[in-house]
Write a structure and sequence with these properties.
Strand content: 35-45%
Radius of gyration: 14 Å
Number of strands: 5
Number of helices: 0
Helix content: under 10%
Distance between the termini: 20 Å
Number of domains: 1
Amino acid sequence: MLLKKRYYRMPGLAIAADVSPDGRYIAAFEAPARLEDGSVIGDYVVHILS
């Protein structure tokens, strides 16, 4: 079975993720990241994908 590749971009860092037991949902946790120039990207966000 071939699976389609799908990407979900987040401005910050994905620090954790999990899939529901039935495979219908994905939860991903995003956290901000500080870049070398001192700027901060991203935020604290919970993403729910279906």
